[in-house]
Amino acid sequence: MATRIEPKVLLANERTYVSWMRMASVMGAIGSGLLAGASDHGSGQEAQGQVASGATGVARAAGLVLMPVAVLFALHAAYTYWSRNVKIQKRVYTDIANETVPLLLGGVLVVSLTSVLLLDIIMGDTISLK
């Protein structure tokens, strides 16, 4: 006897996917904005007093840290959506909730942002990542 898949189950899976992808997109946009801003100001404009080279280096470092984290978030979102969709189609509702990977990704995000903060505090005016 075939059981009917409730639309709310499929929609919940899609909603979770969209939420994770939104977060990855925001992090990617911030990271690429920091990289673009750092490269714009690294072309001699700091001599005019607009941006110090230390701020440019820290912005570039923050962008370089955020971009891979954003890619990890996007890959996790895609894999989770796909694996849950397969389980839903096969009507296997065990082991759908994975609590380990989101905690690891959150930890990676916290460590990366903390490292950028410490880099700014310690090396503030002297850093240059060209």
Automatic annotation (TrEMBL):
Domain called DUF202: residue spans: 8-85
Membrane topology: Multi-pass membrane protein
Gene Ontology CC annotation, any one: endomembrane system
Annotated protein name in UniProt: Vacuolar transporter chaperone 1
Keyword Membrane: yes
Keywords: Membrane, Transmembrane, Transmembrane helix
Protein species of origin: Hondaea fermentalgiana
Intracellular or extracellular location(s): Endomembrane system
Transmembrane segments: 20-38, 58-82, 103-123
